[in-house]
Write a structure and sequence with these properties.
Blueprint lengths: L1 H13 L1 E3 L7 E12 L14 H12 L5 H6 L20 H9 L7 H6 L8 H11 L7 E3 L15 E9 L2 E12 L3 H20 L2 E15 L3 H9 L7 E4 L13 E4 L14
Parallel strand pairs: 5-6
Antiparallel strand pairs: 1-2, 2-6, 3-4, 4-5, 7-8
Helix pairs in contact: 2-7
Length: about 280
Protein backbone atom coordinates (compact mmCIF):
# COMPACT_ATOMS: atom_id res chain seq x y z
CA UNK A 1 0.00 0.00 0.00
CA UNK A 2 2.91 2.34 -0.66
CA UNK A 3 0.76 4.42 -3.04
CA UNK A 4 -1.68 5.16 -0.21
CA UNK A 5 1.02 6.09 2.32
CA UNK A 6 2.77 8.27 -0.26
CA UNK A 7 -0.52 10.10 -0.83
CA UNK A 8 -0.90 10.83 2.90
CA UNK A 9 2.68 12.08 3.06
CA UNK A 10 2.02 14.38 0.11
CA UNK A 11 -1.05 15.85 1.83
CA UNK A 12 0.79 16.37 5.10
CA UNK A 13 3.70 18.04 3.28
CA UNK A 14 1.88 20.17 0.69
CA UNK A 15 -1.72 20.36 1.88
CA UNK A 16 -3.59 23.63 2.47
CA UNK A 17 -6.01 24.08 5.36
CA UNK A 18 -9.55 25.16 4.50
CA UNK A 19 -13.12 25.07 5.90
CA UNK A 20 -16.01 23.03 4.50
CA UNK A 21 -19.71 22.30 5.05
CA UNK A 22 -19.09 19.90 8.00
CA UNK A 23 -17.54 22.55 10.26
CA UNK A 24 -14.36 20.47 10.64
CA UNK A 25 -11.45 21.91 8.64
CA UNK A 26 -9.42 19.80 6.24
CA UNK A 27 -5.84 19.83 4.98
CA UNK A 28 -5.84 18.93 1.31
CA UNK A 29 -4.41 19.00 -2.18
CA UNK A 30 -6.01 19.09 -5.63
CA UNK A 31 -5.25 16.26 -8.02
CA UNK A 32 -3.67 12.86 -7.31
CA UNK A 33 -3.67 9.27 -8.51
CA UNK A 34 -3.35 5.88 -6.87
CA UNK A 35 -2.81 2.68 -8.82
CA UNK A 36 -2.67 -0.97 -7.79
CA UNK A 37 -1.68 -4.09 -9.71
CA UNK A 38 -4.19 -6.73 -8.69
CA UNK A 39 -1.66 -9.49 -9.39
CA UNK A 40 0.37 -8.19 -6.43
CA UNK A 41 -2.42 -8.82 -3.93
CA UNK A 42 -5.77 -7.39 -2.92
CA UNK A 43 -5.31 -3.65 -2.11
CA UNK A 44 -6.78 -3.57 1.39
CA UNK A 45 -5.09 -1.28 3.92
CA UNK A 46 -2.83 -3.18 6.34
CA UNK A 47 -1.60 -0.29 8.52
CA UNK A 48 -5.00 -0.38 10.23
CA UNK A 49 -7.90 -2.81 10.03
CA UNK A 50 -10.57 -1.95 7.47
CA UNK A 51 -14.03 -3.53 8.01
CA UNK A 52 -14.09 -5.41 4.71
CA UNK A 53 -17.42 -7.08 5.47
CA UNK A 54 -19.07 -3.65 5.49
CA UNK A 55 -17.35 -2.83 2.19
CA UNK A 56 -18.79 -5.98 0.60
CA UNK A 57 -22.28 -5.38 1.98
CA UNK A 58 -22.32 -1.84 0.62
CA UNK A 59 -21.14 -3.05 -2.80
CA UNK A 60 -23.86 -5.71 -2.86
CA UNK A 61 -26.36 -2.94 -2.14
CA UNK A 62 -24.99 -0.76 -4.92
CA UNK A 63 -25.09 -3.61 -7.45
CA UNK A 64 -28.66 -4.32 -6.37
CA UNK A 65 -29.70 -0.66 -6.54
CA UNK A 66 -30.68 -0.59 -2.84
CA UNK A 67 -31.67 2.84 -1.49
CA UNK A 68 -33.12 1.93 1.92
CA UNK A 69 -30.83 2.47 4.91
CA UNK A 70 -32.46 -0.36 6.86
CA UNK A 71 -31.26 -2.93 4.28
CA UNK A 72 -27.64 -2.00 5.00
CA UNK A 73 -28.16 -1.82 8.77
CA UNK A 74 -29.84 -5.22 8.91
CA UNK A 75 -26.68 -6.70 7.40
CA UNK A 76 -24.44 -4.80 9.84
CA UNK A 77 -23.19 -2.11 7.45
CA UNK A 78 -23.45 1.31 9.04
CA UNK A 79 -21.77 3.57 6.48
CA UNK A 80 -25.07 5.35 5.76
CA UNK A 81 -26.47 5.67 9.30
CA UNK A 82 -26.10 9.45 9.56
CA UNK A 83 -27.51 10.43 6.17
CA UNK A 84 -30.85 10.35 4.38
CA UNK A 85 -32.76 11.72 1.40
CA UNK A 86 -32.59 15.55 1.71
CA UNK A 87 -36.02 15.77 0.12
CA UNK A 88 -37.36 14.12 3.29
CA UNK A 89 -35.05 15.71 5.90
CA UNK A 90 -32.97 18.62 4.51
CA UNK A 91 -29.30 18.46 5.52
CA UNK A 92 -28.17 20.53 8.50
CA UNK A 93 -25.39 20.48 11.10
CA UNK A 94 -28.02 21.13 13.79
CA UNK A 95 -27.97 18.15 16.24
CA UNK A 96 -31.77 17.80 16.26
CA UNK A 97 -31.91 17.69 12.48
CA UNK A 98 -29.05 15.21 12.33
CA UNK A 99 -30.95 12.99 14.74
CA UNK A 100 -33.92 13.00 12.33
CA UNK A 101 -31.54 12.29 9.46
CA UNK A 102 -30.35 9.22 11.32
CA UNK A 103 -33.90 7.98 11.85
CA UNK A 104 -35.05 8.41 8.23
CA UNK A 105 -34.48 5.18 6.20
CA UNK A 106 -34.78 6.63 2.67
CA UNK A 107 -31.35 7.40 1.17
CA UNK A 108 -32.72 8.78 -2.07
CA UNK A 109 -31.23 8.14 -5.50
CA UNK A 110 -27.68 7.22 -4.42
CA UNK A 111 -24.98 5.23 -6.21
CA UNK A 112 -26.76 1.95 -6.89
CA UNK A 113 -29.90 3.70 -8.11
CA UNK A 114 -27.87 5.61 -10.69
CA UNK A 115 -25.84 2.53 -11.67
CA UNK A 116 -28.99 0.51 -12.36
CA UNK A 117 -31.68 3.12 -13.15
CA UNK A 118 -30.01 6.31 -14.33
CA UNK A 119 -32.27 9.35 -14.43
CA UNK A 120 -35.23 7.16 -13.39
CA UNK A 121 -35.77 6.06 -16.98
CA UNK A 122 -34.66 2.46 -16.64
CA UNK A 123 -31.17 2.98 -18.05
CA UNK A 124 -29.24 0.10 -16.46
CA UNK A 125 -25.68 1.34 -16.98
CA UNK A 126 -24.08 -1.58 -15.22
CA UNK A 127 -25.93 -4.22 -17.22
CA UNK A 128 -24.88 -2.44 -20.42
CA UNK A 129 -21.22 -2.53 -19.35
CA UNK A 130 -21.41 -6.24 -18.50
CA UNK A 131 -23.02 -7.00 -21.86
CA UNK A 132 -20.42 -4.95 -23.73
CA UNK A 133 -17.55 -6.69 -21.90
CA UNK A 134 -18.82 -9.96 -23.34
CA UNK A 135 -19.70 -8.76 -26.85
CA UNK A 136 -16.97 -6.18 -27.54
CA UNK A 137 -14.26 -6.02 -24.83
CA UNK A 138 -12.21 -3.60 -26.95
CA UNK A 139 -14.90 -0.92 -26.54
CA UNK A 140 -13.71 2.35 -24.96
CA UNK A 141 -17.12 3.52 -23.79
CA UNK A 142 -17.75 1.13 -20.90
CA UNK A 143 -18.57 3.81 -18.33
CA UNK A 144 -20.94 3.99 -15.37
CA UNK A 145 -21.80 7.40 -13.90
CA UNK A 146 -23.32 8.12 -10.50
CA UNK A 147 -23.18 11.88 -11.08
CA UNK A 148 -26.64 12.93 -12.21
CA UNK A 149 -27.05 16.74 -12.03
CA UNK A 150 -30.83 16.43 -12.32
CA UNK A 151 -31.07 14.33 -9.16
CA UNK A 152 -28.28 15.57 -6.88
CA UNK A 153 -30.89 17.11 -4.58
CA UNK A 154 -32.50 13.69 -4.13
CA UNK A 155 -29.36 11.91 -2.90
CA UNK A 156 -28.29 11.42 0.72
CA UNK A 157 -24.89 12.67 -0.45
CA UNK A 158 -23.81 13.84 -3.92
CA UNK A 159 -21.53 11.06 -5.20
CA UNK A 160 -17.93 11.32 -4.00
CA UNK A 161 -16.83 8.53 -6.36
CA UNK A 162 -18.79 9.81 -9.29
CA UNK A 163 -17.88 7.46 -12.11
CA UNK A 164 -16.08 4.24 -13.00
CA UNK A 165 -14.99 2.72 -16.28
CA UNK A 166 -13.39 -0.48 -17.50
CA UNK A 167 -11.02 -1.38 -20.30
CA UNK A 168 -9.51 -4.65 -21.52
CA UNK A 169 -6.01 -5.34 -22.78
CA UNK A 170 -3.99 -8.55 -23.07
CA UNK A 171 -6.84 -10.51 -21.56
CA UNK A 172 -6.91 -8.38 -18.41
CA UNK A 173 -9.72 -6.26 -17.05
CA UNK A 174 -8.65 -2.83 -15.81
CA UNK A 175 -10.86 -0.46 -13.84
CA UNK A 176 -10.60 3.27 -13.13
CA UNK A 177 -12.75 5.16 -10.63
CA UNK A 178 -12.98 8.95 -10.43
CA UNK A 179 -13.56 10.85 -7.18
CA UNK A 180 -14.35 14.53 -6.64
CA UNK A 181 -13.98 14.56 -2.81
CA UNK A 182 -11.81 12.16 -0.86
CA UNK A 183 -11.75 11.59 2.89
CA UNK A 184 -8.30 10.03 2.68
CA UNK A 185 -8.33 8.42 6.11
CA UNK A 186 -11.83 6.96 6.49
CA UNK A 187 -13.24 6.90 2.96
CA UNK A 188 -10.45 6.09 0.52
CA UNK A 189 -9.36 2.70 1.93
CA UNK A 190 -12.96 1.49 1.71
CA UNK A 191 -13.41 2.96 -1.79
CA UNK A 192 -10.24 1.26 -3.04
CA UNK A 193 -11.22 -2.14 -1.65
CA UNK A 194 -14.79 -1.77 -2.95
CA UNK A 195 -13.70 -1.03 -6.51
CA UNK A 196 -11.06 -3.77 -6.28
CA UNK A 197 -13.87 -6.18 -5.39
CA UNK A 198 -15.96 -4.87 -8.28
CA UNK A 199 -13.01 -5.40 -10.63
CA UNK A 200 -12.62 -8.95 -9.29
CA UNK A 201 -16.31 -9.72 -9.88
CA UNK A 202 -16.42 -8.17 -13.35
CA UNK A 203 -13.34 -10.19 -14.31
CA UNK A 204 -15.05 -13.40 -13.21
CA UNK A 205 -18.22 -12.40 -15.07
CA UNK A 206 -16.31 -11.85 -18.32
CA UNK A 207 -13.70 -14.64 -17.94
CA UNK A 208 -10.82 -12.17 -17.88
CA UNK A 209 -7.76 -11.85 -15.68
CA UNK A 210 -7.52 -9.05 -13.13
CA UNK A 211 -5.42 -6.12 -14.26
CA UNK A 212 -4.88 -2.71 -12.67
CA UNK A 213 -7.09 -0.60 -10.42
CA UNK A 214 -6.62 3.16 -10.80
CA UNK A 215 -8.14 5.98 -8.78
CA UNK A 216 -8.23 9.51 -10.20
CA UNK A 217 -8.68 11.86 -7.24
CA UNK A 218 -9.57 15.56 -7.13
CA UNK A 219 -10.05 17.26 -3.71
CA UNK A 220 -7.92 14.91 -1.56
CA UNK A 221 -8.04 15.82 2.12
CA UNK A 222 -7.45 14.82 5.72
CA UNK A 223 -9.77 16.17 8.41
CA UNK A 224 -7.85 18.00 11.13
CA UNK A 225 -9.41 15.82 13.83
CA UNK A 226 -7.76 12.82 12.13
CA UNK A 227 -4.20 14.16 12.31
CA UNK A 228 -3.25 12.53 15.61
CA UNK A 229 -4.37 9.12 14.37
CA UNK A 230 -2.61 9.69 11.05
CA UNK A 231 0.68 10.21 12.87
CA UNK A 232 0.25 6.78 14.47
CA UNK A 233 -0.75 5.28 11.11
CA UNK A 234 2.40 6.57 9.42
CA UNK A 235 4.65 4.92 12.01
CA UNK A 236 3.39 1.47 11.11
CA UNK A 237 5.11 -0.82 8.64
CA UNK A 238 2.81 -2.11 5.87
CA UNK A 239 2.21 -5.85 5.91
CA UNK A 240 1.76 -8.38 3.12
CA UNK A 241 -1.42 -7.81 1.13
CA UNK A 242 -4.20 -10.39 1.43
CA UNK A 243 -6.03 -12.09 -1.42
CA UNK A 244 -9.75 -12.69 -1.94
CA UNK A 245 -11.70 -15.63 -3.29
CA UNK A 246 -15.28 -15.87 -4.51
CA UNK A 247 -17.15 -19.16 -4.42
CA UNK A 248 -20.47 -20.20 -5.93
CA UNK A 249 -20.19 -17.45 -8.55
CA UNK A 250 -22.86 -17.53 -11.25
CA UNK A 251 -23.42 -13.85 -12.08
CA UNK A 252 -22.38 -10.51 -10.66
CA UNK A 253 -26.08 -9.69 -10.37
CA UNK A 254 -26.66 -12.77 -8.17
CA UNK A 255 -23.56 -12.17 -6.04
CA UNK A 256 -23.94 -11.90 -2.25
CA UNK A 257 -21.35 -10.30 -0.01
CA UNK A 258 -20.60 -13.51 1.89
CA UNK A 259 -19.71 -15.31 -1.37
CA UNK A 260 -16.38 -13.45 -1.26
CA UNK A 261 -13.90 -13.93 1.56
CA UNK A 262 -10.49 -12.58 2.54
CA UNK A 263 -7.43 -14.82 2.73
CA UNK A 264 -4.37 -13.88 4.76
CA UNK A 265 -5.48 -10.48 6.08
CA UNK A 266 -3.32 -9.63 9.11
CA UNK A 267 -3.52 -5.85 9.60
CA UNK A 268 -2.31 -3.65 12.40
CA UNK A 269 -4.97 -2.86 15.05
CA UNK A 270 -7.77 -0.38 14.29
CA UNK A 271 -7.35 3.35 14.91
CA UNK A 272 -10.46 5.25 15.94
CA UNK A 273 -11.33 8.16 13.62
CA UNK A 274 -14.43 10.32 14.01
CA UNK A 275 -16.52 10.86 10.89
CA UNK A 276 -17.38 14.41 9.83
CA UNK A 277 -21.09 14.64 8.91
Amino acid sequence: MKAYLDLIENILTKGVRKPNRTGVDTIGIFGAMVQFDMSQGFPLQTTRKVPYKSVRIELEGFIGGVTNKRWYQERDCHYWDEWCNPKVVPYSTDPEVQARMGEEPDLGKIYGYQWRNFNSDGCDQMAKVVAKLKSDPSDRRMIVSAWNPLQLGEMALPPCHLMWMVGVGEGKLNLMFVMRSIDTVLGLPSNVSSYATLLHLLAKESNLKEGTLTGQLWDVHIYVNHLEGVQELMKREPKKLPTIKTEKFTSIFDWKHDDTTLVGYDPHPPIKFQIAI
